[in-house]
Design brief:
The structure is a homodimer. By secondary structure, the first copy, chain A, is of the alpha/beta class. Chain A folds into two domains: about 170 residues, Carbamate kinase, CATH 3.40.1160.10; about 140 residues, 2-Layer Sandwich (VC0802-like). In chain A, the strands form four sheets. Chain A has an eight-stranded mixed beta sheet with strand order 3-6-2-1-9-11-12-10, with helices on both faces. A six-stranded antiparallel beta sheet of chain A has the order 14-15-13-16-18-17. In chain A, β11 and β12 form a beta hairpin. In chain A, α2 runs antiparallel to α3 and α10 packs across α11. Chain A starts with a strand and ends with a helix. At the A-B interface, α1, α2 and α3 of A face α1, α2 and α3 of B.
């Protein structure tokens, strides 16, 4: 097999872990597999570097931050290459730049424009294990960039896509669970999940994998695996793919929670859309993507309007609301979470929405906005009901 | 003025020191000077990285070591650039590669082939303070290289040479002394020293500056200054230049000591040169440059032969001596040092050699091999006499 393996920060936190990965790579090579490693910075390195930069007042200097942070991955990959090489398996490290990751010039959140694999391919042809720095690239002018949140996963998936290889993302969790096990210890590990379900889980808050890398895997049909580093039993982990085998058995794949929700409301607007137009222009200018928007006509022809966003975004909006010079006050309610029931079975199994609502009703859990897509049903509930809702829905759908 | 300032590891060891350098740069810019900084890795960073690599068995992997070690300087320069920028002085960091340092492919001891200053010049033209990573460069193929011992000094001098700027090397010592103050506390600081004297002092063991950077400064006539970081009083430091003003006053500039000397001897060789030819071929193969060689004809037409090298080199030679299958045994004497009296005045002031020898004689200090050059007289003495020799010569020449 041809596998891109990605190791996160906790998996390479010390020299013993690096030695163990080197040993694993040796076994993979001896079994005839081709391996590319993608690695993050060791342990808490990135946080420590950010602390130093902050102390110097430089954390907002994106160009220098990118060059600073990129050293973290560079150290990991050289140490990994040395450790593998010391076991008699030829290995070489490549920084983002050396591996041909050409990105946009947007420091701190660059997009990959292309991967020029000439150099990488030469080393693969020589039979070497190539160890690539995650999270980083460079512009055509040799300026060092980083890819933003989840960047190392993106590096790994992009390489796998470019080469047509499989991509194994190793982390400190044993795959994807139906519900975050910290909230619901009885949660089951999923053997398989579709790209679409995973993206819903990710963008709705499950947090094990950024939407961006799943999106990329989906676009290029990269077979993804998510599991614990150095766990030999691959049944302990989750494959993410176009179509899973267990479509019929399990209408619901899981539940994800997005915390810290705010409901923003404006009541008794005239039905001319003028204020809403101005409000949306402001919100777009603040670079905020609203989550859910709802408006209702009242019996006397006015409009009650509400939208949902996270608390931080609502802070930003309230800080700038004066710019509108509006006579319509915006009120904010805090203390909500968004609960989403996710599964490709939702569109083919009827009655799932009804079962969700009746379960919540039976336990006196109040829900606000409800939205649904082909593969998800989302409800805004009060923070205080979160744990109870997870438990009763987890029981009801056998998650 | 246009100044390249180089800061060594101890001068950038913590964030407070980085802040202080940033403040100093601000004052320099406000006084109308143009500044380029060259920085080493912070404090003990390089040693720590070497330890990690050694623990993984990778310290002999020169290619990976270069990429690993180069991250040390990269961190310093980004932090420095942030700190300067945070004071409102536009600054940018450039890695060796970004600064156009194109080197040979010899990892761990690469030679600078050229500096393509296009990128650097653009930032200078924009009025920025440019902070350059010392010690590193890259091949035409983007492979990261390091310049070996004293590499950051070489970076600074090479930049100054290319741009025609002055070069201030900041370290933790207050300039060049007549004798190492740890051996002779009464030693005087030199206000000025010539390139040639400095090279003699360096290659004969004074250790404050590598010969290579002085050689480069001499070749391009770069005005060098060596002093303590952030010391405002520039009279506390040493200028290194083509010709000093005090040529006439001071025939002797200083004394330098090279420790751990071995004398190797072969006696009663036939006078046909065969054995010596074989021996020198072996020594060249072992990549050893012999220091001093001497042969004497005995009264019965045989040759007594001896040479001097440091203890480590003598170990290497003895380990390989069997390859010669010689019937002439090599004996080794340990416990010597090489003491050198250095000064451009030596060639113009007569009687200096006589004064050195009579001073040593008067204190019963025995000397072995004596060699001399235009600007130095060197003697091999016993380790046990080192301190006494330094003191009596220091007194005699008022050093």
């Amino acid at each position: 097999m041809n596998i891109v393996e990605k190791y996160g920060g906790t998996s390479v936190a010390d020299l013993d872990k690096i030695r163990a990965i080197a040993q694993h790579v040796k076994e993979m090579k001896e079994a005839g597999h081709n391996v590319i490693l993608v690695a993050s910075a060791m342990g808490k390195t990135t946080n420590k570097l950010i602390e130093m930069a902050t102390a110097l007042g430089g954390h907002t200097n994106d160009r220098e931050m990118d060059s600073l942070l990129s050293t973290g991955e560079q150290r990991t990959i050289t140490l990994l290459a040395m450790a593998i090489d010391a076991l008699g398996i030829p290995a070489i490290s490549l920084t983002g730049y050396q591996c041909g990751f050409i990105t946009s010039h947007h420091h701190a959140h660059a997009r990959i424009k292309d991967i020029d694999i000439t150099n990488l391919q030469k080393h693969l042809d020589d039979g070497k294990v190539v160890v690539v720095a995650g999270f980083q690239g460079a512009t055509e002018h040799g300026e060092i960039t980083t890819l933003g949140r989840g960047g190392s996963d993106t590096t790994a998936v992009a390489l796998a896509a470019k080469l047509g290889w499989d991509c194994y993302i190793y982390t400190d969790v044993n795959g994807v669970y139906t519900i975050d096990p910290r909230m619901y210890p009885k949660a089951k590990r999923l053997k398989e999940i579709t790209y679409n379900e995973m993206m819903q889980m990710a963008c709705l808050g499950a947090g094990v994998l950024e939407t961006r890398s799943v999106e990329l895997a989906s676009k290029y049909n990269v077979r993804l695996f998510l599991g614990k580093a150095l766990e030999k039993d691959k049944s302990k982990g989750t494959f993410i793919m176009e179509k899973t085998k267990n479509l019929e058995d399990m209408p619901i794949t899981g539940i994800s929670i997005k915390e810290d929700y705010a409901i923003m409301r404006v009541n008794d607007l005239p039905n001319d859309g003028i204020f809403l137009g101005e409000l949306f222009t402001l919100i777009a200018k603040l670079d905020i993507n609203l989550d859910t928007i709802s408006q209702q006509l009242t019996h006397d022809g006015k409009v009650n309007f509400s939208f949902y966003c996270n608390k931080k975004q609502s802070d930003t909006i309230l800080k700038h609301i004066d710019e509108l010079n509006s006579k319509y006050p915006i009120s904010r309610l805090l203390g909500f979470v968004k609960l989403s029931v996710v599964g490709v079975g939702i569109s083919t199994h009827s009655g799932i929405a009804a079962k969700v609502l009746s379960t919540l009703n039976a336990h006196n859990i109040r829900y606000y906005m409800i939205t649904s897509s082909e593969i998800s049903i989302s409800l805004t509930i009060e923070e205080k009901d979160k744990q109870k809702a997870i438990e009763v829905l987890g029981e009801a759908f056998d998650l």
